Give the backbone structure.
Amino acid sequence: MEVQNKIIVVGIGPGNPDYIVPKGLEAIRQAKFLVGGRRALAQFAADGQETCSITADIQGVMNFIRDKTAMDNVVAMVSGDPGYYSLLDALRREFPAERIMVIPGISAMQYAFARLALPWHDAVLASFHGRTPAAQDIAYRQGKILGLLTDSKYNSQTIAEILLKAGWPEVQTLHICSRLSYDDETIVTTTLGEAINLPAVSHCILIVA
Ligand SMILES: C[S@@+](CC[C@H](N)C(=O)[O-])C[C@H]1O[C@@H](n2cnc3c(N)ncnc32)[C@H](O)[C@@H]1O
């Protein structure tokens, strides 16, 4: 019977290696073929592992994975949790689910709520990372909690402007959570009205609560 090697997708958490689950770390250590962003590879790749960096050339990454799974398992590292805006989407379009094994990680979103000691079961989560959310997701409702991914275009300033236009009050509390889990982690608690005049913070998590 033909042996089907797996694509093991490991969520490496928000950044600090202390937040990877032991199973994920073990998979990374045992990998012969390791895929990941440049930062993750610099942090985790060991001598003897053949690596492939995730760049804009996603098809190149898929080709590497296809070639190498003919020989052994391939481990792909993604930030946070694989099920939440990661390479897993593209992998599922390219390979059948039976070939993919996911080891979950702590999402930056989950970590941000944890740092604020704020339950997230009622929160509306949306992404401004390379996209814009549906208007109804970010529409104002009293008591609504929003958790938002950002990028450099959609940052703490531009998103505050968008939310004010969507009817949120100026006095609404906004938590700007950046570099989560790293030594220089910063959480600034301000208001939407003030955030417009503060320096823009990008690639952070915004929590409106
Ligand atoms: C493509 S999404 C990936 C999300 C990831 N799969 C997860 O579960 O956290 C990238 C965005 O996640 C957020 N992010 C990832 N790591 C972060 C960190 N350490 N601190 C703050 N935000 C982070 C930022 O909004 C960043 O632009």
Notes: Residues 14-15, 78-81, 84-86, 107-109, 129, 149-151, 177-181, 203-205 surround S-adenosylmethionine (CB under 6 Å). Residues 7-106 form a domain with the Cobalt-precorrin-4 Transmethylase; domain 1 fold (CATH 3.40.1010.10). The beta strands are 7-11, 33-36, 50-53, 74-78, 100-103, 124-127, 146-149, 173-178, 186-191, 205-208. The first strand starts at residue 7 and ends at 11.
